[in-house]
Design goal:
This protein has 15 helices and 23 strands. The protein has 486 residues and is an alpha/beta fold. It has a 7-stranded mixed beta sheet with strand order 15-16-17-14-13-19-20, sandwiched between helices. A 6-stranded mixed beta sheet has the order 10-9-8-11-12-22, sandwiched between helices. The longest helix is centred in the first third of the chain and has 22 residues, at 101-122. It starts with 7 loop residues before the first strand and ends with a strand. The protein binds NADPH dihydro-nicotinamide-adenine-dinucleotide phosphate. The site of NADPH dihydro-nicotinamide-adenine-dinucleotide phosphate has 31 residues, from α7 and α8.
Length: 486
């Protein structure tokens, strides 16, 4: 299949076919790097969600019972098709999201392939337990797929996070209704065409496009949806939790972060500078794991600051399609304005802008795009809003600290607890700090190094539950114990 991604009229994928929303209403999809219209998105509502849930419910008995080998075979075929279409999918992702094409080609789409491959094979290794209750009984536990589940994913890593959710759900034997972010629907739509090509049975996966508060909320509220796997902002997560709590649905929430990146005086200096720049500005700072609070030990603060600023200033901001570009457009006009207002707030709070601090004006065809310069701010207190609230853009604050205790106090001093990075060559210190940090993930002398078998998720306001490895397969299944009297 060859994709033509320009001016796509995106359709919902329901019961194995592509269809317009029931209301026939569409929204405009624009490219954030040019401001140009690139297609139309269904403005789906509860009626489309109901059709999708119905199709998923009908598909469930066969899909859950067909056996893990059968599911694995189809999913591996799907992974192959994604890999075959890597270039076209990467182009679509970059066009829709504004991220550098190179990043989409080397990270987003390859990771989508890995997600599907990983769960297509992991499900074959999930095993049940048995207990011999000597001498009178044997117990065995069965992991049964939940039924119809909802997967709701954000815009920052569109196909990457979309597949990270649907792959374990499908592999576990659930049928899925997924809602990608309306801001970046393109690769999920192209993916639905690949599902048809792979022979995924009708109704096993359904993709409903539309607004979060409309289509997304209808999905969460639907009584026939057994579980919700959500990745997105903390406020949306709270709203979803309130809706599903009285219904006792299973819920996995991967939410925001305000992650500390802690640089000790005994670090490998060059690696720490390089890694901190990556952690701050990759994907325009729009990764929940980005190190947006850079804490640097006082003894090396000035030297580190100069080196960090030099590297950040050298980042090439520009047309995402160009291979030398490292920083593309932020995802939308709304998000662009939000980031600029956060920088304004940082100024009002007394922050000193050391680098960037505003838009980057590019020549045509990117003159109407949403580009923001990598921005570095210092002189702010730990308690101010800039250091407490997630910005989710190419903005990092610099703060000095003196002791390990102070570093830990700053690191843990927000409501979030998703990820942290520590730069030190002292192994004992690395363990001490890693154990003291309240976050679900701690990287030592690296950032975003991922092994898909490891648990992934946040503490505090960064979420509930873990994705990754067998955890995700357990989430989409429920244990039943069967006790047999001997
Ligand atoms: P949002 O919370 O705005 O949206 C996430 C998804 O939820 C989108 O598909 C959105 O649809 C949908 N949605 C919005 N409102 C509702 C609702 N009431 N009911 C059901 N679904 C709804 O997050 P963003 O898309 O803005 O993503 C950025 C956020 O995601 C950041 O806070 C970031 O930290 C977090 N994130 C967390 C990750 C993690 O693993 N912990 C990973 C990546 C991002 P639509 O967009 O169409 O409105």
């Amino acid at each position: 299949m060859v994709f033509i991604v320009f001016m796509e009229k995106i359709l919902n994928y329901i019961n194995g076919g592509l269809q317009e929303p029931v209301c026939k209403q569409f929204m405009i999809n624009t490219s954030p790097a040019t401001g140009q219209i690139i297609g139309q998105i269904p403005d789906s509502d509860a009626a489309d969600v109901a059709l999708a849930v119905q199709a998923a419910a009908q598909a469930f008995p066969h899909w859950s019972a067909c056996g893990v080998q059968e599911r694995s075979k189809i999913l591996l075929k799907l992974a192959d098709l994604v890999e075959k279409n890597l270039d076209a999918l990467a182009e679509a992702e970059s066009l829709d999201n504004g991220k550098p094409l190179k990043l989409a080609r080397t990270v987003d789409i390859p990771r989508a392939v890995q997600n599907i491959q990983f769960y297509a094979t992991a499900a074959m290794h999930l095993h049940d337990e048995a207990y011999y209750t000597e001498p009178q009984a044997i117990n065995y536990t069965r992991r049964e797929p939940l039924g119809v589940v909802a997967c709701i994913s954000p815009w920052n890593l569109p196909l990457y996070l979309f597949t990270w959710k649907i792959a374990p759900a499908l592999a576990a034997g659930c049928t899925v209704v997924a809602k990608p972010s309306e801001v970046t629907p393109l690769t999920a739509f192209l993916f639905s065409k690949l599902c048809i090509e792979a022979g995924l049975p009708a109704g096993v996966l359904n993709i409903v496009h539309g607004l979060g508060h409309k289509a997304g909320q209808a999905l969460v509220e639907n009584p026939d949806v057994e579980a919700i796997s959500f990745t997105g902002g903390t406020q949306t997560g709270k709203k979803i939790a309130q809706i599903v709590a009285p219904r006792f649905k299973k819920l996995s929430l991967e939410l925001g972060g305000k992650n500390p990146n802690i640089v000790f005086e005994d670090c490998d200096f060059e690696k720490a500078v390089q890694g901190s720049v990556l952690a701050a500005f990759s994907n325009q700072g729009q990764i929940c794991l980005c190190g947006s609070r850079l804490l640097v030990q006082k003894s090396i603060y000035d030297k580190f600051k100069q080196a960090f600023l030099a590297k950040a200033a050298a980042l090439k901001v520009g047309n995402p399609a160009l291979s030398e570009v490292q920083v593309g457009a932020v995802v939308s006009e709304g998000h662009y304005n939000k980031i600029l207002s956060c920088i304004k707030l940082a100024r009002e709070e007394g922050g000193k802008i050391l680098l960037g601090g505003g838009p980057v004006q590019l020549p045509a065809p990117n003159d109407k795009g949403f580009f923001i310069a990598p921005t570095v701010i210092e002189g702010l207190s730990q308690e101010c809003r800039t250091n407490q609230e997630e910005i989710f853009g190419p903005v990092v604050t610099l703060m000095p600290f003196e002791t390990e205790e102070e570093a830990l106090q700053y690191a843990n001093g927000t409501e979030y607890g998703l990820a942290a990075t520590i730069w030190t060559e002292n192994l004992k210190r690395a363990h001490r700090i890693a154990h003291g940090i309240k976050s679900g993930i701690v990287w030592v002398n690296c950032w975003l190094l991922r092994d898909l078998r490891t648990p992934f998720g946040g503490m505090k306001q960064s979420g509930v539950g873990r994705e990754g490895g067998f955890e995700a397969l357990r989430f989409f299944t429920e244990e039943k114990n069967i006790c047999i009297k001997l």
